[in-house]
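Box 4.2: Ligand-aware structure prediction
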Amino acid sequence: MRITLSIIKADVGSIGGHVTPSREMLDRIAEMVGAVKGSLVLDFYLGSTGDDISILFTHREGVNSERIHKLGFDAFMAATKVAKDQGLYGAGQDLLKDAFAGNVRGMGPAVAEMEIDERPGEPFVMFMADKTDPGAYNLPLYLSFADPMHCPGLMLSPSLSRGFRFTIMDQNYTKGDRLIELHSPQDQYDLAALLRDNQRFSIESVHTHDGQIAAAVSTTRLHNIAGKYTGKDDPVALVRAQGNFPATGEILSPYSIGHFVAGCMRGSHVMPLMPVKRNSPISYFDGPPVVSALGFCVREGKLSGPVDLFDHPFWDHIRDNVARKSVEMRQQGFSGAAMLPYDELEYGGIVEKMKVLDTRFKVREDK
Ligand code: F6R
Ligand code: MG
Ligand code: MG
């Protein structure tokens, strides 16, 4: 069966700061989406990571479906109302427009979608990250799809050995979608040259050599849409697993690094990415940046799962290591590598401060 997997995610309010949404908000969304299960929507899953709620829909409407996007938008509007009634913080934060206008992209919520022909067994992983931006997936996806150090399938499996096609978006370009396609292994060094810059370039999708979609990432940049700080983009991703795609373990392997990403406190720091269990809140220094991974299978649109892929004793050790890296980075406070470069700082206040300070500089007169 040809089906579409769509994740629509938004932060529309949370308890105790930018920490976690309320049960009542999730219930309201479940009620709204549940009402069209079996008609518009084949199946759905609802979960949170940090202060973001993600809705995973299975349906037959294709990607960029106005009906599915509207359902997601309306569900988040309804959850916003609940959040307001409960006095939650940042109610409606990611809904940058009041009325739906055909496509939820560009309205605040993040979207990752793929249309697939279901294989007889169709496993995939749903990633949800909070307190970071889409570039956080650059390194893990590169390592899973292009590096035999993490994906031995690239050496051992004839189909994976044929490599993958990466579609990469230039996040600095705001007039439209500026994209480039690169192939691994042929373009390996070019790929690395772009993907090292997580703030400017981010992977939007990965395809097999024969054009099957393998991974899709939400690449919305909230501050590009809103023109000002509204929160980090907190990206979601879908990655197909097994067979002609990397094995689930090859997809998870790079998250053992706890690589440093942009985000955490006030979206303005550099901190390591911690793999966490499903529905985890955030904590230390409004972070650390977190990512959850849920494994599903889908048959005629019906979901089995999720299995919580970071809920295993192995990841406790990784979490300890990420906590240690976080504290070490925080010891240098605002200095140098601990904070993002000037144009990535997500509060405008520093711009004003710099303008004032600039007028106080004097060029010393030569003797
Ligand atoms: C980062 C984030 C938080 C807030 C911080 C201040 O993405 O969501 O770190 O930036 O808690 O929030 P406000 O300005 O809402 O008080
Ligand atoms: Mg928030
Ligand atoms: Mg968030």
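In the box above, the bound molecule is magnesium ion. Residues 1-117 form a domain with the Alpha-Beta Plaits fold (CATH 3.30.70).
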